[in-house]
Amino acid sequence: MHADDLRAVMVRDLQALLREVNLYPDDATPWQEVPGIANTGGTLVLHLAGNVQHFIGAVLGASGFVRDRDAEFGRRGVTRAELVAGIEKAIAVAERVFPTITEATMRSDFPIDIAGRKLNTARWLTHLASHLAYHLGQVDYHRRMVAPKSGTADTMALGEI
Hints:
By secondary structure, the chain is an all-alpha fold. It has a single domain (3-150), classed as dinb family like domain (Four Helix Bundle (Hemerythrin (Met), subunit A), Up-down Bundle), CATH 1.20.120. 60% of the residues lie in helices and 0% in strands. Helix 2 packs antiparallel against helix 6 (121-146). It starts with a helix and ends in a 15-residue tail after the last helix.
């Protein structure tokens, strides 16, 4: 798999995440808890933006971003504007770093251990794209549960890849 293919899918999904956030009717709704669901949409957005900025921006792109994973899951009441800003930073990181990833880098080990082991960069980036898509679907379901008349985000926009 080529880095540009992963960039295209991840940027498409991050843009869909932007649309999801903008479809929440107000700043409180992304944080509305739903019985039986572990994370709110707001929590998942913080997590995804932090994840991309850490693994792609800081680890592969030397951006200097310092991740606070506990805050991704612990913060509440972040405004939609702040959520959007985090996603926009993640998109910018993906657009900046993916073009610098060579085929040799894709074949090599990811620069840091993952769960105590070495993983091939292509495999780890494929996992990150899958992880993003998984949580994007969760955000979509959360938004439709808490704001059922909020419309569609067209999360699988084929024209964007």
